[in-house]
Write a structure and sequence with these properties.
408 residues; mainly alpha; three-stranded mixed sheet; two-stranded antiparallel ribbon; elongated; binds zinc ion
C-alpha cells in the first residue's frame, strides 16, 4: 500500500476529546486526523452531527423549489398532479439523500420546505393549517418517508444481503453490541442506528421481525409493501391526532378522515373554483370566523368569536363555512340551483334537503356531503358544489370591496 500524503486521513467518531500526541500510520507513512469527511456527497463530522449537511440540503431544496415555481407553477401552467410530480422528482430527493444514515431525528426545517411547497401547489395562504396541506395532497411527513426508506434499507440487509458485504458486517457487529447492552441506559446513544430501527419497528407492531433479525424469502419480497402500509397507518393516525387540537380545523375534521390525495377535485381545470374549495374546506379563508382571528389594517385587535358575525346578510350569525354554504341569504338563488342539481344524489344518501335544512344538525349533514367524502367521489355533486362556492365567494368578495369598502 502506498498512501499519498494528504490523500488519506483518519477520522474519529464520538465525543471523547482528542489525544493530541497520538499518531496514525498507514503503510509506514504518518497520516493526519480530520474532523470532516465527505462520503458520497454527505459530509460526516466527527461528532456525527448532520447539522451542517442538513442546512445545505434545505438551501438546495429551496433553490429547486423556486425553480419549479418559476418554471410554470406560478402562472398556473402546471396542474396539481404535474406540480406534485415535480416535487417528487426534483425537490424531495434532495431532502432525502442519504437519509437512511441521518434520518432518525425530527427535522422541522425539512418539514417546513415540504409544507411550503404544498401550499404553493394548492394555491393557499401561508396561514393554512399544516394538516390540511398534507391532508389534501395525501402526503406523509418527511419523517414518515425517512422511516419508510430506512426500514426498506434494513430489510435489504437482513433479507438476503450477501454476508460478504461490508454493510452486512457493520450492521451485524453493531447489532450484537446493541443486543448485549440491552439494559444499559446509554445503549440508544451508543448504538443509534440499531436503536432507531428497533423503535420504528416496535412502533408499527413489527418488533417480532426485529427480534428475528432476518426476513424469509417471501417476507423479503413483500417487505416494501408491508412497511409502506404500516407507516401509512401510523402517519394517518398521527395526522388525525394533530387535528384534534386545532379549532381552525372544525370543518375539515368532518370532511376528511383518510390521508389520501384529493385527486378528483384537485385536478379540476377550474383553478379558481378549486382554490375557493380548498380555502373553505381548510378553514383558512376570507370568512370572518377566520379573518376575525387576526388584527388587520383597519382593526387593531382580533375579534371575539361572537363578534365575527356576517356583514353580508347581517342576520346576526357568525360567518363560518356552514353559514356561507347553508344559511347566508345573499347566496340563496345560487344555493337553490345547486340543491336542484344534487337533490336526487342526496336523497340516495338518505338526506332530504328541505327537511334537513330545518335544523342545525341537518344543515351540517348537507354541508358535509357537499364538501366531504361524497364531494370527493361523486362527480355530478362535485361540479355543483364547486360552481356554487366559486360564484358565491365572488359575490361575497365583490360586496366586501364595493359596498363594505373592505371593512370586514
Ligand atoms: Zn350571511
Amino acid at each position: 500500500m502506498n498512501p499519498k500524503k494528504g490523500k488519506s486521513e483518519v477520522m474519529l467518531f464520538g465525543r471523547k476529546p482528542r489525544n493530541k500526541n497520538r499518531k496514525w500510520m498507514l503503510g509506514g507513512v504518518e497520516i493526519g486526523e480530520t474532523s470532516m469527511y465527505k462520503y458520497l456527497g454527505i459530509e460526516l463530522k466527527s461528532g456525527l452531527s448532520f447539522k451542517h449537511y442538513k442546512k445545505k440540503i434545505v438551501a438546495e431544496a429551496r433553490r429547486r423549489m423556486m425553480l419549479v415555481w418559476a418554471m410554470g407553477m406560478r402562472e398556473g401552467k402546471l396542474g396539481v398532479t404535474d406540480c406534485v410530480r415535480a416535487w417528487q422528482a426534483l425537490v424531495r430527493p434532495v431532502l432525502e439523500y442519504g437519509t437512511v444514515v441521518w434520518g432518525e431525528a425530527k427535522w422541522e426545517e425539512g418539514e417546513q420546505v415540504q409544507r411550503e411547497m404544498g401550499k404553493m401547489i394548492l394555491g393557499c395562504s401561508p396561514k393554512m393549517a399544516n394538516e390540511v396541506v398534507l391532508g389534501e395532497l395525501g402526503w406523509w411527513t418527511l419523517k414518515g418517508r425517512r422511516d419508510f426508506l430506512t426500514l426498506n434499507y434494513w430489510g435489504k440487509i437482513v433479507g438476503g444481503m450477501s454476508p460478504h458485504r461490508l454493510v452486512y458486517h457493520v450492521y451485524q457487529t453493531s447489532r450484537s453490541r446493541y443486543d448485549k447492552n440491552h439494559d444499559s441506559p446509554n445503549n440508544h446513544s451508543l448504538n443509534k442506528w440499531c436503536n432507531n430501527i428497533h423503535s420504528i419497528l416496535k412502533g408499527i407492531d413489527l418488533e417480532d421481525t426485529w427480534n428475528a433479525n432476518t426476513l424469509t424469502e417471501s417476507e423479503a419480497a413483500q417487505w416494501r409493501g408491508t412497511i409502506k402500509e404500516k407507516i401509512r397507518e401510523r402517519e394517518e393516525t398521527q395526522w388525525k391526532e394533530r387535528m384534534q387540537s386545532k379549532p381552525k380545523l372544525r370543518t375539515y375534521i368532518l370532511l376528511k378522515t383518510q390521508l389520501i390525495f384529493e385527486h378528483a377535485y384537485l385536478t379540476t381545470r377550474d383553478k379558481e373554483a378549486r382554490e375557493v374549495m380548498t380555502r373553505l374546506r381548510g378553514g383558512t379563508n376570507e370568512l370572518r370566523i377566520e379573518t376575525g382571528r387576526y388584527a388587520i389594517t383597519n382593526r387593531d385587535r382580533p375579534l371575539e368569536l361572537n363578534e365575527r358575525r356576517c356583514l353580508i346578510c347581517m342576520n346576526g350569525e357568525i360567518e363560518d363555512e356552514t353559514h356561507f354554504v347553508m344559511n347566508c341569504s345573499v347566496y340563496e338563488d345560487l344555493r337553490e340551483k345547486m340543491f336542484d342539481a344534487v337533490s336526487s344524489i342526496l336523497t340516495r344518501e338518505g338526506i332530504r334537503i328541505s327537511e334537513a335544512r330545518k335544523d342545525e344538525e341537518g344543515r351540517k349533514k348537507i354541508m358535509t356531503a357537499l364538501m366531504g367524502e361524497l364531494f370527493s367521489s361523486n362527480s355530478e355533486l362535485r361540479a355543483a358544489a364547486l360552481h356554487f362556492c366559486k360564484r358565491a365567494m365572488r359575490r361575497r368578495n365583490n360586496i366586501v370591496r364595493t359596498v363594505l369598502d373592505q371593512r370586514t
